[in-house]
TrEMBL record:
Keywords: FAD, Flavoprotein. This is NAD(P)/FAD-dependent oxidoreductase. InterPro entries: FAD/NAD-bd_sf, FAD/NAD-binding_dom, FAD/NAD-linked_Rdtase_dimer_sf, Pyr_nuc-diS_OxRdtase, Pyr_nucl-diS_OxRdtase_dimer. It comes from the Bacteria. It holds the Pfam family Pyr_redox_2. Residues 353-462 form the Pyridine nucleotide-disulphide oxidoreductase dimerisation domain. Belongs to the class-I pyridine nucleotide-disulfide oxidoreductase family. It comes from Streptomyces humicola. Its cofactor is FAD. Gene3D superfamilies: 3.30.390.30, FAD/NAD(P)-binding domain. Residues 10-333 form the FAD/NAD(P)-binding domain. PANTHER family: MERCURIC REDUCTASE.
Length: 469
């Protein structure tokens, strides 16, 4: 039997991933009565199935690769992978998928926590259903913050539903490595996990429907990763649309691609992006089309501005469609908190969003790709530098493949995008991200002194590749 009760709060935060948790905690510390709602683990995707455990897997796999590079360069070595050690490290980092520490951290900052599924039922109200079906109607006096995150997007491939396919959750929680793994999706998640499992001994096949791996990044990143992954033994198929999936217990998965490939594996990982279910959230209660891909927000992250004493509705994180990154949710949380507290400050800006794919080599990028810049009608020049050539001080280093590519707008004389692919690509990206974010003039960047011998000095070579006007 469903029972209902009514509660009130100054602020209701639905979704307690990194950004939602931070916003709830800061608002509570500011003296507001805050209720935080989540049906899953407090802390969200990042600490349990995303950023942190996946990078433990990636780092462990990278150690194996480095060990295998010793022979012929620094001595001899025999590497024997042991997945149990990596799996144990993941379990320890996630507290075996227990969020007690996170809940205590949240409530310790003054937030009231409600475990359950929250949905909008009025412009100022969220109804929460717990595991037993009991409902609580919570009415906001000042604000509602929607930080519901996203979930794996599973494509409607015939035969897929009902099979024991993996998403990133099952892959991260795996106690053993499969003999073989078929990955549908050649984006960041599919490539990171696919390469990691391969280095632990799994035969991995990547199937990507678009013509390129990392289709949202520069084509040079695809070319680099395709070469490296293939050399490492992964079987990579691009422009390959999966037409059907079949599963037999004890045998595994069989996929049939529309152009004729028939691929088999013990396990199947679906890594085809993420989605936010606005219908389940009850977006219609605030006059938002539930079929939209993301919540429409203004430059202060408001979905519904506060009017005439009525509470406003803000959104942050994946649900805003501005990038499914932890750093994006934290950036947006800052703006949301200032907005609710009436502190003003800078509005949201997305011209210099950084992103990193933690493959080996890493692919770090910021701002616009060349194609995106041209698509916006910008007068574009590009510069390119090969890492191995630019970093001559590392001629004896193994695994120094990569490049720097910069995209400049001739009209403004600044960089509007850049990619750093190679060893420490995500770290090299820092200098490029500052340049794009700060709209640093090209003539100033060209005056920069780049330390030698480093990989980041290739930025200088790429800038020289732009030429002068």
């Amino acid at each position: 039997m469903v029972s209902a009760r009514v509660d009130h709060a100054d602020v209701i935060v639905v979704g307690l991933g990194p950004g939602g948790e931070d916003a709830a905690g800061r608002l509570a510390e500011a003296g507001l009565d805050v209720v935080g709602i989540d049906e899953r683990l407090v802390g969200g995707e990042c600490p349990y199935w995303g950023c942190i455990p996946s990078k433990i897997m990636v780092r462990s796999a990278d150690l194996l690769a480095e060990g295998r590079r010793i022979t012929g360069h620094a001595g001899t070595a025999m590497v024997h992978p042991d997945w149990r050690l990596a799996a144990r490290a993941v379990r320890e980092a996630t507290a075996d998928w227990d969020d007690k520490i996170a809940v205590d951290r949240l409530t310790g900052r003054g937030t009231r926590f409600v475990r359950g599924t929250g949905r909008l039922t009025a412009p100022d109200q969220v109804t929460v259903a717990d595991a037993d079906g009991n409902e609580t109607e919570i009415r906001a006096r000042r604000a509602i913050v929607l930080a519901v995150g996203s979930e794996p997007a599973v494509p409607p491939i015939p035969g897929l539903a009902g099979t024991p396919f993996w998403t990133n959750h099952e892959a991260i929680e795996a106690a053993e490595v499969p003999r073989s793994l078929l990955v549908i999706g050649g984006g960041a998640i599919g490539l990171e996990l696919g390469q990691a499992f391969n280095r632990f001994g799994t035969a991995v096949t990547i199937v990507e429907g678009m013509p390129r791996l990392l289709p949202g990044e520069e084509p040079e990143a695809h070319e680099l990763l395709l070469r490296v992954l293939t050399e490492d033994g992964l079987d990579v198929h691009t422009s390959a649309l999966v037409g059907s999936v079949a599963y037999r217990d004890g045998v595994g998965f069989t996929t049939n691609c529309e152009r004729g490939e028939r691929l088999t594996a013990e396990r199947l990982l679906v890594a085809t992006g993420r989605r936010t279910d606005l219908a389940r959230l009850g977006a219609v209660a605030i006059d938002v089309d539930p079929d939209l891909r993301a919540l429409p927000v203004d430059d202060r992250l408001r979905v519904v501005p506060p009017v005439g004493g009525r509470p406003g509705v803000w959104a942050l994180g994946d649900a805003t469609g501005k990038g499914a990154f932890t750093h994006m949710s934290m950036y947006q949380a800052e703006i949301v908190v200032r907005g609710i507290l009436g502190q003003g400050g800078a509005v949201a800006s997305y011209h210099a969003v950084p992103r990193v794919t933690f493959t080996d080599p890493e692919v770090g990028a910021v701002g616009l790709t060349e194609a995106q810049a041209r698509g916006k009608g910008l007068a574009v020049r590009t510069g390119y530098a090969d890492l191995a050539s630019s970093s001559r001080g590392y001629v004896h280093r193994v695994g120094n493949e990569g490049f720097i590519k910069v995209v400049a707008d001739e009209t403004s004389g600044t960089l509007v995008g850049a990619t750093a692919a190679g060893p420490y690509g995500g770290e090299i990206l820092g200098a490029l991200a500052v340049a794009v974010h700060g709209r640093v003039p090209l003539e100033v960047l060209r005056e920069q002194i780049w330390a030698y011998p480093t990989f980041h000095r290739a930025i200088g070579d790429a800038l020289r590749g732009l030429g002068t006007t």
